Amino acid sequence: MTGFDYAKSRATAERLIAKFGQPAQLRRITNSGSDYDPVQTNQDFACMLVDLDYTQVHIGDTLIQRGDRMIYLSTAGLSIAPMLADRLLIAGIEHAIVDVLPLSPGGTTVFWQLQVRQ
Q1: What is the rounded distance in angstroms from the CA atom of residue 82 to the CA atom of residue 16?
Q2: Structural domain span for residue 80
Q3: Residue 97 covered by a domain
Q4: Overall domain count for the chain
Q5: Which of 1, 47, 52, 87 has its CA 20 to 30 A from that of 19?
Q6: Rounded to the nearest 5°, which phi and psi values hold at 3?
Q7: pLDDT tens digits, residue range 11-20?
Q8: Residue 11: in which H helix or E strand, if any?
Q9: Is residue 31 part of a domain?
Q10: Mean of the pLDDT values across residues 88-96?
Q11: How far apart are CA 87 and CA 71, in angstroms?
């Protein structure tokens, strides 16, 4: 029996996010220089995402706050993996990344699910 083709699932996710999603930027902030006086540099990476609301069921008695967004972030063309220290620019508005959950069955990242907060 052959294994499941996760690369095909990844290609499907990339195609659907490109079709129904929107462009955005993943901003990585790096520090250089001394620890007491660091110089921060922003580097933006173009990406595609789908921006969704959380339902009321998700918000009650959880760490999800009203106004948080659920993001499906495509792997297409993205050379870095998102981290909690990164920022996500959606329509020019900067959002903090609260949680990063890769959907990576079989070791292949199909897409990332992010929780972001303005």
Answers
A1: 20
A2: 6-117
A3: yes
A4: 1
A5: 87
A6: -75, 165
A7: 999 999 999 9
A8: helix 6-20
A9: yes
A10: 95
A11: 13
